[in-house]
Specification:
The chain has 73 residues and is mainly beta. The protein is 0% helix and 23% strand.
Amino acid sequence: MQQPAVNFVGGWLTVSNGHWGDWKKVSYPCGKFIYSSAKSAMELVAMPINSYQVRMQAPQGSGRDNTALNGIQ
């Protein structure tokens, strides 16, 4: 019998759609393909991300683009 996956997620953060930008499709930067004998095919498995770096911008003032997060890697 297969053991259940271990969940190391400490919490979830949900954001509203806001006014700027569009959501893109989900991607798995740390994903890898494995062979699934149950499906007799290769399938993409998302691997956990263990670190990241963000680029942020100071507040731009009232009525300006104050999204703050300008990049993530």
